Amino acid sequence: MAFLDIQHLEKSFGPTRVVKDFNLNIERGEFVSFLGPSGCGKTTVLRMVAGFETPTSGAIRIDGREVTGLPANRRNIGMVFQAYALFPNLTVAENIGFGLKVAGEGKAAIARRVREMLDLIGLPQLGGRYPFQLSGGQQQRVALARALAPRPQVLLLDEPLSALDAKVRISLRDEIRRIQRDLGITAIFVTHDQEEALSISDRVVVMHQGVADQVGTPFEIYNRPATRFVAQFVGTLNLLDVDVLDATTGKVRLGGVPVALDQPFHGRPGERISLAMRPESVELGRGDSDRVVLSGEIAAVHFLGSVIRIRVAVAGQFVSLDTFNQPDRPPPSVGTPVEVSLPHRDLMVLAA
Amino acid sequence: MTEGRLWSWLAVALGGLYFLLPLVGMFDFSMRMQRDGYSFEAYRVVLADPQFQQTFGYSVVLALLTIVLGIAIIVPTAYFVRLRFPGLRPVVEFLTLLPLVIPPIVIVFGYIRIYNTSSVLPLTGSWWGTNLLILFGYATLSLPYMYRSVDTGLRTIDVGSLTEAAQSLGSGWTRILAVVILPNVFVSVLSGAFLTFAIVIGEYVFAALLNVGSFGPYMVWMGGNRAYEPSALAVVAFAITWACMALIQLVTRFSKFSTVRR
């Protein structure tokens, strides 16, 4: 049995079902991110694991123990909030020692653990400060130390980086992952930022309208999205609507021109489906023989420095592609007829 | 100085005179008890009066008990309304405003009718009962000030996140209220407490109708029977109120975790 086992979890607020039949197994020491847009139910699932919301139905087990009906203060779970939620009247050291004091540990043990935690977050000299004397990044580090101090079974992080500026966000994100690895603690990280989720997670759960659309490693989620929503939400994606000619041989029609995909898919002749491709898979030119080739003309060129993003109009639709900047090769001008191609294996067929 | 600025200063000066002149006059009068010049004789007489000491002491104890009762009722109520029942806030606000709308004489007549010696709960029949009744009555009178102060304090902190943070660290409700919420709204509670103190110290209607020997009836009696001492008493009462306000400021400034500039 998995360390954290969530089964058939449902949550309704009045007539609105915000979480629908959510199932997930998380192994001990795993770092799992819940990724999705606002209102997809990711925070609600996290709050049900924490004990702040009561599920309408379903079960949550931690290390074999059923905790579904247990109040939040008896679950032994550490939580880090978006708004830090440090106690303003307590010093950094008192904040970190709070959970240990509640657990009835002795003064010496608390002081030792607080020192250990301050070292872990790299702020050993700030124990005597009050939260209002710290920067946002420092406050969130303290909040992390406070959550970890009582040695919780599971660490829950509810968009902990959203209130920070971009630079601090990246450094703190790496630090959270390092600390999680060092301690080997099981962690759930909620975010709406795909880069955050993909860069630090062992597995990502992409949520959409209360349902876990796909659970997989960042590599799987990015390269083999299971649904149209996952494909569109994670990364930048080109979508082209085509009509099925013959699904068994992989033939479609794009704007009146037959295109051979050379891979079978599900669909009836005449049915409209979508072809999805990542901008980095598409190249200018025909390339070698094992590629899908599309003809069009340059619609726009965006010079982004090291990368040039080119938009190509193909039968009234658009395909974006990225090429590296090369000083001896200026980008093509708008209106130039071009062919673009991509490997068969990088083409995703999605139901419309 | 521009013309606009001149008018502003004139308005401020007029307003200041309106408030200060009667105080200066009262203070001047309270110092003229002895015919041969200014003296603090009226103050000496008032402060040495055993009845002053007894009634003032009684009112101070009553005020402190009212504050404790008020905090015990209002802090958890305002906290749970904010945390769990935000929809009830207008209702609770309306209820706490009632003591300002219903005159105290109506409230105390209601108390006397309900708790008289021939009722099921004859509180007015005993010394303890009457004191308890007046304590509850004063707690009711303090509701508008206490609730507003505490609610304003709660608005300045993220009640929901702090509560959840404390819960996730193993805290129960009592510890959350005592260790996390109360210290963070302490200055607000204190300002509500000082207002309550000022109200209870000067309250007359409840005390007179329940026949209790508190400071309010003593001041009225003094005003009807003496010349200089009532002015001295009024100045003392003002001094107490101002001292309370200064204390609020001091506590706010020197609160260790306050973000107020020092």
Task: Summarize the SSE layout with pairings.
The complex is a heterodimer of chains A (352) and B (262).
Chain A: E1 4-13, E2 16-26, E3 31-35, H1 42-50, E4 57-62, E5 65-66, E6 77-80, H2 92-102, H3 107-120, H4 136-148, E7 154-158, H5 166-183, E8 186-191, H6 194-200, E9 203-208, E10 211-216, H7 218-223, H8 228-233, E11 238-246, E12 251-254, E13 257-260, E14 272-277, E15 283-284, E16 291-303, E17 307-314, E18 317-324, E19 337-343, E20 348-351
Chain B: H1 3-30, H2 41-48, H3 50-83, H4 89-101, H5 104-114, H6 127-155, H7 159-168, H8 173-184, H9 186-202, H10 205-209, H11 215-225, H12 229-254
Helix pairs in contact in B: 1-12, 2-12, 3-6, 3-9, 4-6, 6-9, 7-8, 9-12
Query: What is the name of the CATH superfamily of chain B?
Result: MetI-like
Straight-line N-to-C gap of chain A: 38 Å
Shape of chain B: globular
Which segments of chain B are poorly predicted (pLDDT under 50) over 5 or more consecutive residues?
Answer: none
Q: State the CATH architecture of the largest domain in chain A.
A: 3-Layer(aba) Sandwich
Question: What is the helix/strand order of chain B?
Answer: HHHHHHHHHHHH
What do we call the CATH topology of chain B? MetI-like fold
- Summarize the largest interface: chains and residue counts: A-B, 32 and 20 residues
Proportion in β-strands of chain B: under 5%
Strand order of the largest sheet of chain A: 6-7-8-3-9-10
What is the CATH architecture assignment of chain B?
Answer: Orthogonal Bundle
Which CATH first-tier class of chain B would you pick?
Answer: Mainly Alpha
Radius of gyration of chain A: 25 Å
Order of helices and strands of chain A: EEEHEEEHHHEHEHEEHHEEEEEEEEEE
Instruction: Provide the structure class of chain B.
Output: mainly alpha
CATH class category of the largest domain in chain A:
Alpha Beta
How many domains is the backbone of chain A divided into? Answer: 2
Helix content of chain A: 10-25%
Main beta-sheet strand count, sense and barrel state of chain A: 6 strands, mixed
Q: Tell me the radius of gyration of chain B.
A: 22 Å
